[in-house]
TrEMBL record:
Keyword annotations of the record: Metal-binding, Molybdenum, Oxidoreductase, Signal
Xref: PROSITE patterns: TAT
Name the UniProt record assigns to this protein: Trimethylamine-N-oxide reductase
All copies of domain Molybdopterin oxidoreductase, residue ranges: 116-576
GO cellular component terms given for this protein: outer membrane-bounded periplasmic space
Taxonomic lineage from the root: Bacteria, Pseudomonadati, Pseudomonadota, Gammaproteobacteria, Enterobacterales
GO biological-process terms attached to the record: anaerobic respiration
Superkingdom field: Bacteria
Cofactor(s) of this protein: Mo-bis(molybdopterin guanine dinucleotide)
Amino acid sequence: MKKNLNSHVENVSDFEQKPLQVSRRRFLTGAGAVLSVPLLAGLWPKSALAQAISQALPQFTALRQAQTGILTAAHWGAFEAIVKDGKMVDVKAISDDPYPNELITMAPYQVHAENRIKYPMVRKGWLEGGPANSQPELRGRDEWVRVSWDKALTLVSDQIARLQKEHGPQSIYAGSYGWKSVGMLHNSRTLLQRMMNLSGGFLGYAGDYSTGAAQVIMSHVVGSMEVYEQQTAWPNVIENSQLVILWGCNPMITLKNSWNVPDHVGQTGFEALKKKGTRIISIDPVHNDSAKFVNAQWIAPRPYTDTAMLIGIAHTLLTEKLHNPDFLKTYTVGFDKFEAYLMGQDDGIVKDANWAAEVSGVDADVLRQLARDMAKNRTMIMGGWGIQRQHHGEQQHWMLVTVAAMLGQIGLPGGGFGFSYHYSSGGSPTAKGGILAGISAGNSPKNTPTPIPVARIAECLMNPGKTINFNGAQVTYPDVKMVYVAGGNTFHQHQDTNALVKAFQKPETIVVNEPYWTATAKHADIVFPTTTSYERNDLEMGGDYSQLYVFPMHQCVPPQFESRSDFDIFAGLSEKLGVQDAFTEGKDETQWLKSMYDDMKTQARAARVALPPFDMFWESNNYVRFPVPEENKQWVRFADYRENPLLNPLGTPSGKIEIYSDAIEKMGYEDCKGIPTWMPPHEWYKGPEAAKYPLSLNTAHPINRLHSQLDNTPLRKKYAVADREAILIHPIDAKTRGISNGDLVRAFNDRGQILVGAVVTEDVRQGVIRISEGAWFDPADPATPGSLCKNGNVNCLTFDIGSSSLAQGNCGQMAQVEIEKYQGPALTNTAHAVPAGA
Ligand SMILES: Nc1nc2c(c(=O)[nH]1)N[C@H]1C(S)=C(S)[C@@H](COP(=O)(O)OP(=O)(O)OC[C@H]3O[C@@H](n4cnc5c(=O)[nH]c(N)nc54)[C@H](O)[C@@H]3O)O[C@H]1N2
Ligand SMILES: Nc1nc2c(c(=O)[nH]1)N[C@H]1C(S)=C(S)[C@@H](COP(=O)(O)OP(=O)(O)OC[C@H]3O[C@@H](n4cnc5c(=O)[nH]c(N)nc54)[C@H](O)[C@@H]3O)O[C@H]1N2
Ligand SMILES: [Mo]
């Protein structure tokens, strides 16, 4: 079976296509597509092609008779947009979405949001002083000046050309991490990098915010990033798993959105487990929605202590002889070293269930029973990623694999572990057809600098010349003079926002492409107004792992105000930099889409799946759903390794699962050793900081948003409390502080303070507070560092250090905090307001 795309890394491919003419006018009027049904009807069932297509894709002809709107798609699903008088007014989910996501109903509000950036804008200080005298301390509170497109493009291209010449590509950070919108052509980040590669290169990043720690440690332990791999297929899990452990995993929420267009098959898997009555245990400091949905048993540890829990479980497995020595011998290396650690041979500390209970706050008996239940049953451990977005976050997934290896069920039907059941429908069986390749970033020039770990950006800006460890290598931070963001929201994604404010005062020039006045846009010098995906034509796959659908994304409404697509913006900059032909390859939007489609069609033909010609596909206002081969429905991760470890070795140095990694041991890091190890985190309930800040923070991904996306829509009414981001507080913690449901609360520590609205609930463990990531940063007084964020951006409270010398992942899911009832003056939330002059 084909290996899956790494869903965070664009499928990079180059293709030479003969541009074919499709009428541009027809292309732009997506609504006209509805009229073309007779064309299809005329073709069917006469020609051989039509017969081949209807055989391979029965859905393409059978579905979508009663079309009402314009078919498009988003991270939250595919839908038809209803447009009246040039305005998007409503949406309708496609009929075969098994779990339509309410977030699609926000599309009209995305297009017509009040805080759209309307025109190219330049910050006054920068416009008057230029990059050398721009008064960078005014970023985030300066006035804005409207300029023409030509002027804005010239200002930016002049800086790119000058910096390339005077300081080289390392002076321009154009990594631009972020979730942008779906679409294989209008991929803002790739387009930015394409333009930069053609005009001299740029400083990029390594890793991501999602799985920074896990993806690096897993490469050493199982030989691949693992977190973005296809999982044992759902039908196989439903049939064979007797016990499912959700370890820091909230799939019914996180499956709502995907990197590509979601197929929402994952939710049907959990629903099937629930119907069958499969036993499920959720291990999470929060009684999350998934645990409630599947009626799971809830075990609530102290946050950030999962590694200790797992070590305690390992001790029970070993001492009660519940482990599988044959599996460990054949398929793993280094268990003896881990065993010595468990038994305390070096440090004199026996790490049994009692020891783990003392660290994690979970009863030793519960841990012992958990070990026994896991050993007795066919057990699938589904690990989420919040547990690795932590200091020493590498250890959690390493320990999950170690416990799974001790159980010896890896590679068996319904057994082992899976780190992507909660993400983009891992386990949704892979279809057979073609895969769309997006536009590529092209080749990097020879003098391209070494990328920095993505979450070290603020430290990099503050410390040019500093060298850090990173996965056995060293990275030296260059002197960054320009930051270019397209498709990400740095002021949401990054930890320790108040430190970021300072770091963002370092570069000479900051450029942002954005549809909205986010905090990142507000902290820039030059802002290009960008279209939403509903204002342009594109194509996208549906189902990241399943590759089940190909969706057309028809333009629904014209570009709003003076906004332009990222493609047009970078084509414009390329023109000024003299590389326009190489950037566009002489193709317009239509020609790009047709060439991508044709390339995929060729692949599909090789897989014996006939596709309609591009024009017909586009005009049908329909999507393609590829067939799913029966054998893929029973696919088992690691089955081939289990069957023949010599023929199918893992990509690790030993070819086996590495419970001990010689490669890591030799790196000699204090904060990531050769075996999985419990190390107290930077901040936690037993650390010295807990005296002042006793509450442990949980920053889970929001139920009704994608990160910061959609915070500026009416969906907010569903989750905002007193018009701020919600904070979940245990009744006892609330009572001792005199806080009631609905109260305004100030949450604070030494790094920052935020205003949030209280939800008093027993759904959180005592001593834990939850504030979801993604509320837009809105400082009460932008001139005073660390002033109260009026909207509740949780990253004002988190700290900005790497997970360890190994992965340098972010630690967004932890911090010690105190809260109090807010007694200060009434404060208007201005997070979604437009700045002065705009
Ligand atoms: N404390 C804490 N912090 C976290 C996390 C956590 O768990 N806790 N999670 C982390 C994780 S896993 C992630 S992935 C990051 C996510 O961080 P981001 O990916 O930065 O978050 P988004 O809110 O999706 O930001 C995307 C931005 O792109 C813009 N955009 C959308 N479409 C387009 C387009 O077509 N063109 C352009 N130019 N812009 C567009 C949107 O308006 C939005 O501002 O956050 C990380 N931060
Ligand atoms: N609705 C929605 N879906 C999304 C996203 C979104 O923003 N909104 N973002 C997408 C992205 S980019 C990503 S990376 C994934 C994120 O997927 P995850 O990283 O798995 O999601 P989180 O919500 O951060 O964490 C999952 C669970 O871990 C728990 N948890 C946190 N800390 C601990 C701990 O110390 N111990 C234990 N045992 N549990 C803990 C949280 O309470 C939460 O219920 O989701 C994707 N899906
Ligand atoms: Mo993520």
